[in-house]
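Researcher: I've been going back and forth with a colleague about how 8-oxo-dGTP diphosphatase might be arranged in three dimensions. Neither of us has a model we trust, so I'd like an independent prediction. The organism is Chondromyces crocatus, in case that matters for your notes. Sequence below.
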Amino acid sequence: MEMVRTIRVVAAVIEQDGRYLITQRRATAVLPLLWEFPGGRVEEGETDAVALKREVRHRLGVEIEAGQLISFVSHPYERYTVDLYLYECSIQSGEPAPLAVNEFRWVTSAEFDRYPFTPADEATMNKLLGVG
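Model: Here is an independent structure prediction for 8-oxo-dGTP diphosphatase. You can compare it with whatever you and your colleague have in mind.
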């Protein structure tokens, strides 16, 4: 039996005035043009907080403060499994700009279903919203 690689990924739930910051993956990315909470892969030797700050800075050009863990979901894809850890975060400085994402939006939780999310993010949102 072949071992399936597990990738640890962190994502930031950033809420302001009842709206959440979501980002759209680039057309050249894996799962192109799907939406997700901003974040990315945790590198070897990194803490989740350090990875979150690095990834959000790289993708949106803002400095964040990583807060408490909100939820965790393990989602199997065809060639690997993603262990997605979702953290409550806040922007400390800067204004979001689409540096390494196709686009970003501020949306209410009621608007989530208007955006096609990655399967792992979809599962996490269902946990957050208490459905599924």
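Researcher: What would you highlight for our discussion?
Model: I'd start with this: The longest strand covers residues 63-76. After that, consider the following. Residues 48-60 form the longest helix (13 residues).
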